[in-house]
Amino acid sequence: MNDNLQHIISKLQTKWTIHQVLILLIGSLAFTLIFLAVVSRLLVVSWWMMPVVLTAGILLLYYFWFKPIKPADITRYLNKTHPGMEESADLVLEPYDTLNLLQQLQYQKIVQSLTLPVAIPKTIVKQQRISILILLVAAMCSAFIFFYPANHQDKNLVENSGKPVVFKPEIILPQVKQVTIIVASPMYTGINKKEQNNFNITAAENSVITWKITTTVPVKKAGLLFNDKSVLLLKAQGKDNMSFTSSKQVSKAGFYQLQLDTSQSELYKIEILNDQPPSITVQSPKPNTLIEAGRPQVTNIQVSVTDDYGVKKAFIAGTIASGNGEAVKFSEQQLSFNNFTPGKRQYQLQKQINLSSLGMVPGDELYFYISSTDNNNQEKRSGIYIVRLEDISPLMSMDGLANGLDIKPEFFRSQRQIIIETEQLLKDRDTLSVQDFNKKSNDLGIDQKLLRLRYGKFLGEETDAEIGADHDHDEPGHEDETTVFSSAEKIMEQYAHMHDRAEDATFFDAQTKKQLKATLAEMWKAELQLRTLSPKNALPFEYKALKLLKELQQQTRVYVAKTGIKTPALKPEKRLTGELTDILQPVSRQDYKVPENNLELLRKALAVLALLEVNTKPGAVEWQILQEANLQLATKAASDPSGYLPALQALQNILRQKGSGSDVQAAGKGLHKMVASVPKQPQQTDSKPGMPLSERYFYHLKKRQ
Amino acid sequence: MNNWTLTVLSLGILLLILLLFKEYKRENKARLWWRIIATVIAITGFICLILPVSYMSLQSEKNTNIILLTPGYDDTAVRNFLSVNQSEQVYSTEADLQVSNKFKATIINDINTLLRNDTEVAIHVFGYGLPAETLEIFHNQSFIFHPSKLPQGISAIHWPAKLKTGETIRVQGYYNNTLSKPVSITLSSFNKVLDSVIIPAASHAPFDVNTIPHQLGRSVYQIKVHLGKDTLSQESIPLEIERPRLLKVLLLSSHPDFENKFLKNWLAEQGHSVAVKTVISANKFNSGFYNTPGAMENRLTVGFLKTFDVVKADAGWFNTVTKSEAALILNAVAANKLGLIVTADSVSRNPFSNQFPLAVTGSSLQQAILKTHDSSAVLKPLKMETPLYLKPQNTLQSLITDQVGRVYAGNMLYGSGKLLYTTVTNSFNWSLAGHQNDYAFFWTMLLQKVAPAKQTEEAWSIRPFLPITDHPVKVEVQSGQPVQTSAYLNDVTVYLKNDHTISNSWNGNYWPSKKGWQSLVQFNGETRWWYNYEQGNWKTITQFDRLQATTRYALSNKNKTDDLLNITKKVPVAVPGIYFFLIILMAAAWLWYEKKLSL
Question: What value of ipTM does the predicted structure carry?
Fold first, then answer.
């Protein structure tokens, strides 16, 4: 009896577990389908991914959802669903011997109440149904995702040249059994030979196109008529006159017709994909770069070069202009990119140019452009870029200041002096001890500070009254000088109404103050670098400060124009009274030829088509107009086959007296498009024949007045 | 008064006398007067009972109603009418058997069969009515119109049938949309849509589609009505585009400038004849002749001016030349319809300050955005250094204004010609800035405004505007010359008769028999083309025209109809005997009761 119950429980457990595993499998299969369908839209999918994803799905579900069924679960379920168990099914799980008497009695009672078969829980069955439903939905979804037409198209038409986009099914002559067209693109394009079975061709420039045509009946003469002008005869292969071949190199777009004996096919188009010259984008430097004095004399060139079939050559062509005025000299240099290997379609090129290694000195300019040549020897140049090294010589020159006496202020070193000394310090670095170097740098920093404070005065900045108090420099007269400055300020104070803001109480206008402030800021930065013992970094700031100071100096100079010259007073009575009798009066004559131009012809042709549209038979003159319009349309169609070929085809049908109503409309549309617009111009209007009465009335009305 | 009446009266009076005598003899004299009155009443009533008493009364006549069903009639309206009124007969102009079965209508081919001499017949017309020319025959009869609702479709349309190169064709009209959805109207040529408008749902709205035709010669455009993707209707718009008639322009300038140079080039390149005369020094001129032969003299002459259509001069010119020369130009404008364009650049030196007073705008160096006076075209901004404008005048027609309405170009009549004044002196800037279209628009407008119209020798017209096969068209010609009395239409001779009101107008009738272009040979030998439609084209316009014509006729005929309907007669009306009997009864009853009282 014991075995019976145990048997039921274990059987139930197996059944339950099988159901759960089934749900697990179904669920993971659904997941796999959806996942693969979505991935296939984005990436390439191969079949081996299926088991991988399936396993992953199973593992995922197993980990997060699957719970193994234990006997305790079974007994809990039995207790819940079978009243006969009297909440005592757990007793089965215990060994009979360990039960006490009461339990044994209860055990025997419940064992009889349970009989096979015992149904598995309904929830599991429900879950299973839902999982199957999910699988069905997933299968449909993935099928939809998988087979829904992709709308992304290959942008590169060359890749598609084997199957051109045909907007209208081609009409092929009934004699043609089979046609094979081989498009051999030029070598440089790197495109393989393409074969196609329709007549409309899209090919790269200068491709060699070979036609192989097999006919159903023997044909005496076969040929291709290009752009209504040139004929390419097809050579017969074999003796039966049923297969023909010929080839031609095409460089221009146009259209052609197949001629077999007397019959002519419709017009087929040849579209040409022209080879574009390489495109060059310079990402850095900027078109006009100024390298300030003291900055590293290096420029970094970054360029991206692309071409449709491949780049053969790319280099930097540079010209260095040195000297100024009449002594300017030019030297040309060609620099290559380090990371350039010919043949690729796209490049990201980089080159760092050390300007000093090119022999450039401050004041020199480097002009450069990037030149690139593609496989088809088409060269393209970028715009000209200019890199200038700042010229510091005018800053350093003393021309304007030179006078008899060379007065050098003792303690106020000028900004120029500070620069010279900084440079000297950098030169002497190797020969100086570290302490000396640091000390000199710090001293220069102090000098810089003094200079800053001095200029700060002009701006009315808070005076550091005790200049030099924070260090002990022996600078005689230092105290005196400051008192002089402060006394000047005191004197000013007596006259000026100074309060609130020290900054506003100066004699400078706002613009000057702004520049002075900028100068002080640069000085402050230079001082910072000097004091932190890195004079090299201080140099750019020192230069900048000097430059700004020079600018300030220049600004204070005012241009005063020369006083005007005195002209003798005009005598109006004498004006225009000169002797002119001998002077001839010019007369010009010209007849502008307004030719019977193309526009007018097309407009007339449109009117002829309009007559055809209402079934009016045009006369010989009108046919002549249509013939001439046909020539123009053919020329236009040769250059833009996709725009005008249908119109040309229609017009030719009309000229062959085979045109239908839709042909008239197609031709009309094409011509209408060619006319584009009719210019406005003034013209005389018509009036009805005059009545003598009204004229008489007007005459008498005038007499009255 | 016949014997019978006399007999009855006399017998009655005798009876009355007898009875009165009896009353008088009666012993009981109480209420004697009351009894006498009752007796008189009784006898009077008795006489009246025997003699037929009648009175005269006004009574309207009974009319006979005739119903005429015309296409588009409304079933329920007819049925309602029939249920209220009696109708003798129902007629129909529609040769549709179903209709005649429904109302037992007689189909008539000739409207004259409805004519009656009897004015008592009232004709009730249902549907869209009758064509204008047949309505007049009802002038003697009462005519009542029961119009149907407007049909879905184009109810009116017009366009210029003849255009010059570069002119815009505007097809304008009204569309009646009875649908609950908007419809679109398109103008197309060779199935290429050139313009379109949307007509809102349930509305009778005007429409205007336009384009500049590309053709040179005859052409047929299509006007189509679409509801979504369906085409509701399609009609042909025939038009003929002619070569432009070129102008002869004289440019006078007091100094060489770009404005004239550009204008000269622009006009000459299009083939117009241009002569230029520019002052370069005292009495020295630079002159030029483009596309025209000619020789310039130092002074303008009447004969020289006669060879031009338009003269353009700057204000400075009038200040440099003598007064007589300026008067010469103005005379040519007044007498010979010469167009004169004057460009003015300053207020102080304005030769026409009376006619065209100028004013300065406040700001200088402004970008003026010029537009036509009705805002139909807005030109690209033009930088003007000294922006002057024309002060408004009663006689001034403004042509070009700026955004705030200041006039920059305006014209006025001067004698038989036109004077145009403009303060735009740097229009060439449009050309330089690449806005050649704006430049062309500006000068086309100004030149065309003043250019005198060329008087033609003969002016032909075909009426109606939309001729239809098997309907008569009226061929009309106005001619300054003595005319031939016949015209040739499609090789058929049409004899013309002189209009009795307009002496130089002649007309004749022609019956077109096929659709399409029809020829008409003018007196000068040129062929003039006109277009004929087949039956069924422009159906809604015909219906609308009939509705309008019939409504108008019914309205104009309303007084007569009312008169005819309200004719009345004095008719004797017999008074029913019962009233007299009752009177006798009451009088007798009183007499009987009085007897009871006295007992």
Answer: 0.74
